[in-house]
Amino acid sequence: MKSVLLVFVGGGFGSVARFLLGKMLNNSPDGIPFGTFFANVLGSLLIGLILGFAAENDALTENHTLLLATGFCGGFTTFSTFAYENHILLKSGDFMSFALYTIASFVMGFLAVFLGMYLVKFIA
Question: Would you say residue 29 has pLDDT above 70?
Fold first, then answer.
């Protein structure tokens, strides 16, 4: 039950942070939704750092990992919003933004996870 509560609390904070970031950066009804893009890339970097710390030196307990990685990062990043926003871009005929947003999201997300895991070696 404690695990569920940790994920719930972390997810709540992550969802609110993503919502606020989206409100600040997703100003246009068409074009690339930068709030979601930055949330997904930043969340990928954070999960790389968190899981890197957890793996490298046991600095984080399982509870920390549940709260921060599963909870916060899970609530902060969002594949469903990403998919919906791509649907909107396709529906509006903005194929260039669709392609740029999709490719950049995947590439930057993967690179951010790897960067986070790599940076841990220098931080820890």
Answer: no
pTM score of the predicted model: 0.91
The alpha carbon of residue 82 and the mean position of all alpha carbons in its chain are separated, in whole angstroms, by 11
Give the tokens for residue 102. 């999709």
11-15, 29-33, 109-113: least confidently modelled range: 29-33
Q: Is 111 exposed, middle or buried (0-12, 13-18, 19+ CB in 10 A)?
A: middle
| Residue 110, C-beta contacts closer than 8 angstroms, at least 6 positions apart | 44
Phi, psi of 32 (to 5 degrees): -70, 125
Structure tokens at 82: 């990403």
**CB–CB of 37/99 below 8 Å?**
no
Closest CA to 11 of 51, 50, 68, 65: 68
* 35-54: pLDDT as tens digits: 999 999 999 999 999 999 99
For residues 40 and 35, what is the distance between their CA atoms, to the nearest angstrom? 9
Residue spans of the domains in the chain: they are 2-123
Read off the amino acid at residue 8.
Answer: F
- Tell me the one-letter amino acid at 18: R
